[in-house]
Amino acid sequence: MTDARITDLMTTLDVTRKGAERIADIVKAGANLFIQEGFPALTKRRIAKQLGISHGNVGYYFPTRESLWTAVIDYELKGHYQRLGDLHADENDPQGRFDEYVVRWIDEYNDRVLRVFFSHIIAFAEIDPVVAKIRDEIYEAFFERTMQIAAALDLGIDEKVLEQRVLEVIVVLEGLHAVSAFRPALVGRDYEFKQRLLRRVNAIVRGE
């Protein structure tokens, strides 16, 4: 993790730098296990063995498996949100910002690690209420961010109508989970497909 992330951990969790660095090591090791093997592998014992530390050392910072899961997921999501949220288009160009946001969302599906990450969460959420809550929070965050970007287009519609259109946009874009799996070239290298999808999303949000 970066020095900024270590400093953030020190402030958020009220721990020393050494403690923050240990937490960072635990979370990074957990993230690697999670991506490779999913939730069943994400245990304090597996992480302790990988880092060559005691099970109790991991448990000191993460007393429950749920606290460990949450920390690992948060670690992976921070990078994702940053990539999706830091737009280069000018603040005074809402259409440019909306288009950039959508294209970045499409491009995210080229990242195999990200696809595996979300697939694990979506699958495990069906059998574990803690993960289900995390899944719902993730989608609410996507929804709120998309609402914010779409609202800037000033479409002259009330919030309820915009909500329904944004939900439809999410339905369309989340379908890329499947398409990127069995047609990776279509999502990754087909410029015309990406442009058609962008036009479709714009048509949805404008009610066309």
3D structure, described in words:
The protein is mainly α. It has twelve helices and no strands. The protein has helices spanning 3-13, 17-37, 44-51, 55-61, 65-85, 94-108, 112-124, 129-151, 159-174, 176-182, 184-189, 191-205. Helix 6 crosses helix 12. The longest helix has 23 residues, at 129-151. The model has no long low-confidence stretch (mean pLDDT 88).
List keywords for this structure.
single chain; 208 residues; mainly alpha; Arc Repressor Mutant, subunit A; 78% helix
Topology:
Blueprint: H1 3-13, H2 17-37, H3 44-51, H4 55-61, H5 65-85, H6 94-108, H7 112-124, H8 129-151, H9 159-174, H10 176-182, H11 184-189, H12 191-205
